[in-house]
Design brief:
alpha/beta, 6-stranded parallel beta sheet, globular, DapB_N, binds NADP nicotinamide-adenine-dinucleotide phosphate, Dihydrodipicolinate Reductase, domain 2, 360 residues, Rossmann fold, oxidoreductase, 10 helices, Dihydrodipicolinate reductase, DAP_DH_C, 27% strand
Length: 360
């Protein structure tokens, strides 16, 4: 951290320049609370390019490299670690932590469960050794499914059940992954071989366990259901076609049970527009809804205020980058070790109000 009479500046490295990574680079470059000092890429075509060029900005003077040793040798406060994957490379994260760099990552893990305990204990030890902290951030899980309900329950007197709804419209925000996600396949085939792994509930279980832990409840089981919708007509998207009669919608439900009753349900609606049957009542744009049944009942809807055609401004993905990026100062300032939302408390994002940015 660089301190001057003005607010401190956090020296950050962006690890990987996918959709989340590119949005994060923009945030680090445009926000005076940060100084971008390094960018790690795996794609050989990106090596040697300026971080600004990769993120659609003017040149920054920071040149992307695939040299891991050079990145680890940099003097930096934090690595925002967002490569492909569902779990960060444990050895690499520990190496970064031991080298004196805090790590914030949308890959998680987010909370200790039976599945993640050993992994996070190893990270904890590396953080203690390096005097650094690790925070698994993310949108869902990582924010909508845990931090948001945990914030809202303070408005309640009694909780009977918590629902978190996610809708992603892949027709509005086309992704390279549409075929891999099961769209365009025969319904029987997707039911026999779902595009989401049977292990997916272990990822969401971290958010569920965080909520249950806070409420003093014990989760005894997590169940999964999958319902499909089919295309009522051919659906064309940039890069392909979902033919009529094939899968064009997927509705997952993951439910955490406590004391013999459903306590938390995460509803995931993935849709390819509205020419689908059944047409679920899930809205037609990417967004999130938290519903808490109890006394008093509560409902919160979150959606993007307008669509930007920037290819990186892809639905909720900018949120994924900013949730982690905005936590970096507090994670850097936190005691060493694994820092979940419960330790982090209220994050104080820095540099969001910028000179000249206020509407007059
Ligand atoms: N919790 C959440 O809510 C949430 C939401 C969205 C995403 N995520 C996580 O964030 C990560 C990044 O998302 P994204 O949308 O930016 O993904 P993405 O656009 O697919 O980009 C991932 C980047 O990883 C790098 N990469 C490519 N091949 C790789 C490999 N074999 N091993 C490691 N890295 C490789 C590439 O960057 P370079 O060419 O620059 O190296 C690629 O651009 C995802 O993996 C996902 O786990 C979490």
């Amino acid at each position: 951290m660089t301190t001057s009479q003005a607010a401190p500046t956090y020296r950050v490295i962006q690890w990987a320049t996918g959709k989340v990574g590119r949005q994060s680079i923009r945030h680090f470059v445009e926000n005076s609370a940060f100084e971008l000092v390094g960018v790690l890429v795996t794609n050989p075509n990106k090596v040697g390019k300026d971080a600004g060029e990769l993120a659609g900005l003017p040149d920054t003077g920071v040149i992307a490299t695939d040299d891991v040793n050079a990145i680890v040798a940099l003097d930096a406060d934090c690595v925002h670690f967002s490569p492909q994957g569902t779990l960060p490379d444990l050895e690499m994260v520990c190496r970064l932590l031991r080298s004196g760099k805090n790590v914030v990552t949308p890959l998680g893990p987010f909370f200790r469960t039976e599945r993640t305990r050993e992994y996070l204990d190893t990270i904890e030890a590396a953080g203690q050794e390096g005097g650094t902290s690790f925070h698994g951030s993310g949108l869902h899980p990582g924010y909508m499914s845990d931090l948001l309900p945990l914030t809202l329950i303070r408005l309640m007197s009694r909780i009977d059940r918590i629902h978190v709804y996610e809708t992603v419209n892949f027709l509005a925000y086309p992704s390279n992954y549409i075929p891999a996600m099961g769209f365009g396949r025969a319904p029987d085939d997707v039911l026999a071989n779902p595009s989401r792994s049977a292990d997916t509930h272990h990822i969401y279980a971290q958010s569920m366990e965080m909520i249950a832990h806070t409420l003093g409840a014990t989760i005894t089981d997590i169940t999964t259901t999958l319902e499909l919708a089919t295309a009522t007509a051919d659906i064309a998207y940039p890069g392909g076609l979902v033919e009529a009669g094939t899968v064009a919608g997927q509705h997952y439900e993951w439910t955490a049970w406590a004391d013999g009753a459903p306590l938390i349900t995460f509803h995931g609606f993935w849709i390819m527009g509205d020419a689908i049957e059944p047409r679920w009542d899930c809205g037609d744009d990417t967004g999130y809804r938290v519903v808490i049944e109890g006394d008093p009942g509560l409902e919160l809807n979150i959606s993007r205020g307008g669509i930007n055609n920037d290819q990186d401004d892809n639905g909720a993905l900018p949120w994924t980058g900013y949730i982690g990026a905005n936590a970096i100062p507090d994670v850097c300032d936190a005691p060493p070790g694994v820092i979940t939302h419960l330790e982090l408390g209220v994050v104080r994002p820095r540099g969001l109000v910028r000179p000249g940015s206020l509407l007059r």
